[in-house]
Design a protein that fits this description.
Elements: E1 11-13, E2 16-19, H1 26-33, H2 38-41, H3 53-68, E3 73-79, E4 85-93, E5 98-105, H4 114-128, E6 134-139, H5 144-152, E7 156-167, E8 170-179, H6 181-186, E9 225-226
Parallel strand pairs: 5-6
Antiparallel strand pairs: 1-2, 2-3, 3-4, 4-5, 5-9, 6-8, 7-8
């Protein structure tokens, strides 16, 4: 059965705004494409596979299509001062009042609580405005920064899903986190808190040897992404 189209709103998220994607956002797609982890768990085309502006435009158009076909709300996370996109967050409704969330932050914007602000804002909007009953995150066990982002936002750990998803060419376990309306009311953490020094980018954690970090930039940190089943590369 066809789903009605969705309208992606613009939401305030502290020093960021969440808004629909634009073709002017290709710079952040290009940066994400060069990250060793983001293309593995999303539909961002990999630089190693020959990324070009046509591939970047196709990614943006896929985000528009999610709303048009009623399958999800895809937001660009942008800085307030200049409206420059620095990341992604998506909400994907499922059956019976549930929805899954995925997010990523561009390497150059890490350490600024981008994911924390985006996740908290989308979660509050989904529970309060859309009236959803349950939000879910799937995060790899090694992804300590993303696990902390989920916990600081009030998501609760519910278990380990063994061999839950194929990432790259191997099956991976996933921690399942969930947030209910009652959990959200009890959460008191603030994504604006000082960054945890343990979350500093570590070039040793680059998961793809084909993507050597550029010493002129902050080393890519694959820990700042939470994959979402709706963003699986098989759906490109």
């Amino acid at each position: 059965m066809d789903r009605p189209p969705l309208i992606v709103p613009t939401l305030c998220a502290g020093p960021f705004i969440l808004r629909p994607w634009r073709l002017a956002d290709l710079a952040v797609v290009r940066e994400a494409a060069a990250d060793p982890y983001i293309p593995l768990v999303t539909t961002v085309p990999a630089a190693s596979a020959g990324y070009d502006d046509a591939a970047g435009r196709a990614f943006v158009e896929r985000q528009w299509a999610r709303a048009a076909d009623g399958t999800g709300y895809s937001f660009a996370v942008a800085l307030r001062p200049d409206d420059r996109a620095v990341g992604f967050v998506g909400l994907f409704p499922q059956a019976d009042g549930r929805a899954s969330i995925g997010y990523w932050t561009a390497p150059s914007a890490r350490g600024r609580a981008v994911a924390g602000h985006a996740l908290r804002t989308v979660a509050a909007w989904a529970l309060d405005d859309l009236g959803l009953a349950r939000l879910e995150l799937s995060i790899e066990p090694w992804n300590a920064a993303s696990l902390r982002t989920a916990e600081r936002t009030g998501f609760r750990h519910e278990g380990l899903l063994r061999s839950h998803r194929t990432i790259g060419d191997e099956r991976r376990d996933m921690h399942l986190y969930a947030l209910l309306p009652t959990d959200a009311r009890e959460a008191t953490s603030d994504p604006r808190e000082a960054p945890d020094p343990r979350e500093a980018p570590d070039p040793r954690e680059a998961s793809d040897p084909r993507e050597a970090p550029d010493p002129r930039e902050a080393a890519p940190d694959p820990r700042e992404a939470a994959p979402d089943p709706r963003e699986d590369r098989s759906q490109r």
